[in-house]
């Protein structure tokens, strides 16, 4: 009987140890991080004002460290490139917004102002964002899993190569409602809640 109680106690201790170290246990840092990052999405994109807005759909702050954006472009080696990566210390508040701006805003060769004042060098993505071409952009978590994507048109002759789409400079590609809705045209609301739907986004070039 004594041996039985010793065995039972050892088994209970082992079970507790496993539960404590299990990343799926409620309240563990790993699980919270998985849930939080999974709630990070692309929310608003502007070809005219050249910005990409991220939104946190969760009720918890999310670390952006290691998250990154991939833009598909058939003119690039491999057909795509990483245009932005979140640095250490970067975060997005619960139900909050983070705006990333294009490097083209300060690139004279792209019609930009070399004196353009960015909020932070950590909030700049490389290259531009066209409102008149086919576009495919993905947002990844630090674990290399796709969190969100924006796609306008089909690959056709290559991503970022097919022109002729309606270039609506007055509106942005916006999720309505924020975080969960489909992408539609809406009035620009950079860094704030998206407005009402204005129109659907054309998915084929104008003929």
Largest sheet: 7 strands, mixed
Secondary-structure element string: HHEEEEEEEEEEEEE
pLDDT under 50 segments (min length 5)? 1-36
The proportion of strand residues reads: 25-35%
Structural class: alpha+beta
The total of helices stands at: 2
- Give the overall shape, derived from the CA principal axes: globular
Mean pLDDT: 86
Helix content: 10-25%
The rounded distance between the terminal residues' Cα atoms is: 86 Å
Q: Quick one: how many beta strands?
A: 13
Characterize the quaternary organization of these chains. Answer: single chain
Please list the strands of the largest sheet in the order they lie side by side: 8-7-2-1-11-12-13
Radius of gyration equals 22 Å
